[in-house]
């Protein structure tokens, strides 16, 4: 079994910086995690070398997330806007490589926002073509692109597993993968297990999040069962843990994700319980050879 486990640093801090990354990574490692998310929300301000140095001796390897902007959107019909979006993602890929990461994930196919209209076929085609271009470039740097499927309130393009599978297959790059998150799946998928099995050939990141976005062990999403289904089907990719509470977030990020209340107080307790859930489930399931 080679599933690595990652955690989002929002369990402990509003922002991850080179100054606090070492301490947070050591806390994550102490709970049995192997990887930690390093967000690239403003890639032009990131010092990749400083993050690489901060994490070098912690036993934790970074996993990066990135995104697009309305004026830098690789799905835009405007070529200048589209190229700015591709260049924004190219910068994220270079930063990932330079800090020792092999993974850039997130909503890479357009801005994260409540969309005003239904997506057109042209938007989908342009996004697939743009991502295929950058994915092939990223492959030469040892970095994969992983598309997160999110709910209808945060995108109009890839909201469920079937849409993600057809999109990746249309794009045609073998360096383009999928990221499923049980929080978003809970809104969009009629059968969580079936969605995981459908996405499995392209699935590189399975993220566990509860309906309230707090403690994985309390809530109505059967996160352990979803993980067990994936493992029984042969999933060997990364397993992520994500939780958000408003007091440990910047106002801007909390508001953008509609995190309006505090759902946990102690990041170490949350991380320990999440790690125990994942490790216990891993111990109970052996992926077929």
TrEMBL record:
Keywords: Isomerase
Name of a matching Pfam family: AP_endonuc_2
Domain Xylose isomerase-like TIM barrel intervals: 44-258
Keyword hit for Isomerase: yes
GO molecular function annotations of the record: isomerase activity
InterPro entries: Sugar_Epim/Isomerase, Xyl_isomerase-like_sf, Xyl_isomerase-like_TIM-brl
Residue runs in coiled coils: none
Name of the protein in its database record: Sugar phosphate isomerase/epimerase
Organism, scientific name: Prauserella endophytica
């Amino acid at each position: 079994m080679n599933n690595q486990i990652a955690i989002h640093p929002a369990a402990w801090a509003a922002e991850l910086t080179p100054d606090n990354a070492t301490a947070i990574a050591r806390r994550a490692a102490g709970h049995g995690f192997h990887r930690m998310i390093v967000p690239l929300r403003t890639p032009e301000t990131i010092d990749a070398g400083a993050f690489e140095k901060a994490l070098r001796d912690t036993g934790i390897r970074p996993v990066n997330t990135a995104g697009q902007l309305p004026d830098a959107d690789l799905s835009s019909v405007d070529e200048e806007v589209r190229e700015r979006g591709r260049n924004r993602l190219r910068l994220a890929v270079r930063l990932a490589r330079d800090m020792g990461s092999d993974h850039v994930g997130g909503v890479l196919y357009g801005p994260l926002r409540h969309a005003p209209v239904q997506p057109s076929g042209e938007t989908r085609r342009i996004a697939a073509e743009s991502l295929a271009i950058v994915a092939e470039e990223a492959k030469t740097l040892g970095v994969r692109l992983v598309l997160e499927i999110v709910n209808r309130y945060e995108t109009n393009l890839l909201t469920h597993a079937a849409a993600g599978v057809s999109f990746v297959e249309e794009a045609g790059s073998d360096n383009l993968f999928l990221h499923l998150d049980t929080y978003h799946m809970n809104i969009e998928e009629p059968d969580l297990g079936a969605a995981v099995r459908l996405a499995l050939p392209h699935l590189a990141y399975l993220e566990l999040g509860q309906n309230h976005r707090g403690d994985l062990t309390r809530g109505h999403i059967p996160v352990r069962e979803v993980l067990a289904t994936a493992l029984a089907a042969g999933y060997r990719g990364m397993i992520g843990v994500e939780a958000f509470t408003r007091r440990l977030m910047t106002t801007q990020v909390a508001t953008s994700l509609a995190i309006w209340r505090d759902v946990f107080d102690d990041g170490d307790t949350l991380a320990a319980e999440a790690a125990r859930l994942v490790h216990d489930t891993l111990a109970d399931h052996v992926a077929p050879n």
